[in-house]
From TrEMBL:
It holds the Pfam family tRNA_U5-meth_tr. The lineage of its organism: Bacteria, Pseudomonadati, Pseudomonadota, Gammaproteobacteria, Enterobacterales. The gene is rlmC. The keyword 4Fe-4S applies. [4Fe-4S] cluster binds at residues 3, 11, 14, 87. It comes from Rahnella contaminans. It catalyses: uridine(747) in 23S rRNA + S-adenosyl-L-methionine = 5-methyluridine(747) in 23S rRNA + S-adenosyl-L-homocysteine + H(+). Its EC number is 2.1.1.189. Keywords: 4Fe-4S, Iron, Iron-sulfur, Metal-binding, Methyltransferase, rRNA processing, S-adenosyl-L-methionine, Transferase. HAMAP family: 23SrRNA_methyltr_RlmC. It comes from the Bacteria. The active site is at 335 (nucleophile), 335. GO terms for molecular function: 4 iron, 4 sulfur cluster binding; iron ion binding; rRNA (uridine-C5-)-methyltransferase activity. This is 23S rRNA (uracil(747)-C(5))-methyltransferase RlmC. GO terms for biological process: rRNA base methylation. Catalyzes the formation of 5-methyl-uridine at position 747 (m5U747) in 23S rRNA.
């Protein structure tokens, strides 16, 4: 992948861009082997890959510059802004949208936030695109509600220019810190969910719910999880912990399976419930709870537990409890192989039947990995 920003030295977010992609994959596989050293693995599957460019469905753009000439991208630690509207990681549809948004910022009088001076209102623009129909979700991250009336007044022009913006909202983030968003979300359109579809499974993205940023590889991740679960035979009950919008559980569920999905985000749970309704699944329950608290407070033991935790992993408390409750199968999907390796070492009663990398993040050291664990008798 060629990137003019990387060549010019203005953006080095893709740290491995000079490394051939085949070597990147080999290095990631070597890293995973090193992390799981001492933990026998039954089968090492080849990494799953997707496009090397234009694969991101989401842009998180720092807004800088002036209200008349805004810049969308990032700001270096020394305060130097970099415009990333031509970043080759974004789909071909994004640059034209960014161009219109720059004009809109000026029309609406949304003063970019200046970090050094702690002045201005517009901090970030968050843009997400659905593979299904090309609909988009746009979120304005503001310091306060001071410019909200101006934003609302100017919005009809933006919607006329960009009818693909089906979901628009304003997020209020008043803290002077490197925090992407705040707790308050103000809807600016009647529709507040972006519809997506992976492997004929309807999924929904709401403004404050997490969703994978590489849909092509995520689609294959969910399909692989489904295949591995179904290969285990008759799974009557399953827990999907840290379930997000329900992608894993909804792919794995069968009409007769009792599926319980747990996620701390109420926004994500609302999405998962809507997907289950669309699929006509009756034996499904999604709850907005802490996953560790839920699991350690239950007395019943499901046939299979799927965990997809944040970067910190599932931790000792949940590992100890899983060891005690001893479900036949654990499926562990991770965005941080280091914490996953630590967790697997805390599950001595389980064998790693297979493991596979899903390269969500080309040109960086990051990768997603999934491991199938079976209980040793």
């Amino acid at each position: 992948m060629h990137c003019a920003l990387y060549t010019a030295g203005t953006c080095r977010s893709c740290q491995w861009l000079d490394t051939p992609y085949s070597q990147q994959l080999a290095d990631k596989q070597r890293d995973l082997h090193s992390l799981l050293e001492g933990l026998p693995v039954g089968e090492w599957r080849e990494p799953v890959t997707g496009p090397e460019s234009a694969f991101r469905n989401k842009a998180k753009m720092v807004v800088s510059g002036s209200v008349e000439r805004p810049l969308l991208g990032m700001v270096h630690r020394d305060g130097t802004p970099v415009d990333l509207c031509e970043c080759p990681l974004y789909p071909a549809s994004f640059p034209a949208v960014f161009s219109v948004l720059k004009t809109f910022i000026a029309r609406a009088g949304l003063t970019p936030y200046n970090v050094a001076r702690k002045r201005g209102e517009l901090k970030f623009l968050l843009l997400t695109e659905s593979q299904k129909g090309g609909g988009m979700m746009l979120r304005f991250v503001l310091r306060s509600e001071a410019k909200l009336a101006q934003l609302r007044a100017a919005l009809p022009w933006l919607q006329q220019q960009l009818p693909q913006l089906t979901v628009i909202s304003a997020n209020i983030q008043p803290v002077h810190m490197a925090i992407l968003e705040g707790d308050t979300e103000i809807p600016l359109t009647d529709v507040q969910r972006l519809e997506e579809e992976f492997n004929h499974v309807p999924l929904f993205i709401r403004p404050q719910s997490f969703f994978q940023t590489n849909p092509q590889v995520a689609e294959r991740l969910y399909a692989t999880a489904r295949d591995w679960v179904h290969e285990r035979g008759n799974i009557a009950s399953m827990w999907d912990l840290f379930c997000g919008v329900g992608g894993f559980g909804l792919h794995c569920a069968t009409p007769d399976m009792q599926l319980t999905g747990i996620e701390i985000s109420a926004e994500a749970i609302a999405c998962a419930r809507e997907s289950a309704r669309r699929l006509g699944l009756k034996n499904v329950e999604f709850q907005a709870l802490d996953s560790t608290g839920f699991a350690t407070g239950k007395g019943d033991v499901p046939d299979l537990v799927l965990v997809n935790p944040p970067r910190r992993g599932i931790g000792k408390t949940l590992c100890d409890y899983l060891s005690q409750m001893a479900p036949d199968t654990i499926l562990y999907s991770s965005c941080n192989a280091q914490t996953m390796a630590k967790d697997l070492a805390l599950l001595p009663g389980y064998a790693i039947a297979r493991v596979q990398i899903f390269d969500m993040f080309p040109h960086t050291a990051h990768y997603e990995v999934m491991a199938l664990l079976t209980r040793e008798i």
